[in-house]
Design a protein that fits this description.
- The structure is a single chain.
- By secondary structure, the protein is α+β, with helices and mostly antiparallel strands.
- The protein is 27% helix and 31% strand.
- The strands form eight sheets. Strands 7, 8, 11, 12 and 16 form a five-stranded antiparallel β-sheet that branches. The protein has a three-stranded antiparallel β-sheet with strand order 13-14-15, with no helix packed on it.
- A hairpin with a 4-residue loop joins strand 2 and strand 3.
- It is elongated, with a radius of gyration of 25 Å.
- 26% of the residues are buried.
């Protein structure tokens, strides 16, 4: 019975983590380029020890993942708005170091560098990208042209499915070098478009209901075990 209690307690912890991820998803339903987060469970593991005639039950493990499904494409016709089709992230330099984002709302700073709306420098394949006008031509590979001359190329970074980046907030992600995919596919950008968040508020609300019901059922398991233990001890005390 102790194993059952441990599983119930662990399940309640996982449900709490799932509710936290749902809350984060709902908070980012309007965040450009946001990818919804999910917390899943590995199956329970049951092991039999013949020597001790015992059963060992391992609780499910928490696994966080990022839903890579594309968000809706919204046309803006702003030449500095960019959307990534498929996988990949823009690499940007922030005061805290290198970060990644799919929010493609770009602008030009006072020095002529391509930066995000927050002022973070957008990485290029050859370093910082300098522009002389706000109307460049940017092709699907991220190559930037001014007056028919290529002046740079936007860097797109793809990550291993097994090690997705961590969401920090404000549309930014962090990741270690080891999580970057060893083979980088060709990027595909759309100039004059922005990618919406792929979060569905309806879907998340349904997940809240399902998770709360599961949490409550685990609470009943714990309460039932407590009641059973109290009854057993009371009856033993009567002998």
């Amino acid at each position: 019975m102790n194993e059952v209690m441990a599983i119930a307690a662990e399940s309640m912890t996982l449900d709490t983590a799932r509710l936290q991820s749902i809350a984060q998803n709902l908070a980012n339903v309007t965040t450009t380029g946001f990818k919804r987060l999910a917390v899943s469970r590995s199956p329970f593991i049951v092991a039999f020890d013949d020597a001790l005639s015992a059963v060992s039950i391992s609780a499910a493990e928490e696994r966080s993942s990022m839903d890579s499904k594309a968000g809706a494409m919204r046309r803006t016709d702003n030449p500095l708005d960019l959307a990534i089709e498929g996988g990949g992230f823009f690499e940007v330099q922030t005061p805290q170091g290198t970060r990644y984002t799919r929010a493609g709302m770009m602008q030009i700073d006072h020095d002529g560098a391509l930066v995000t709306q927050a002022g973070d420098v957008v990485g290029g394949t050859q370093g910082k990208i300098m522009l002389s006008s706000a109307n460049p031509i940017i092709d699907k590979l991220g190559r930037i042209f001014e007056k028919d001359k290529q002046i740079g190329q936007i860097k797109i970074v793809q990550f291993s499915d097994a090690r997705p980046p961590d969401y920090l907030g404000e549309g930014l992600y962090s990741a270690s070098e080891s999580s970057i995919a060893s083979e980088q596919g060709l990027p595909s950008l759309r100039q004059g478009f922005l990618e919406a968040s792929n979060v569905s508020s309806t879907h998340e609300m349904i997940k809240i209901i399902e998770t709360m019901r599961h949490f409550e059922s685990m609470q009943k398991v714990v309460q039932g075990f407590d009641d059973f233990s109290d009854t057993t001890l009371r009856r033993l005390g009567e002998f």
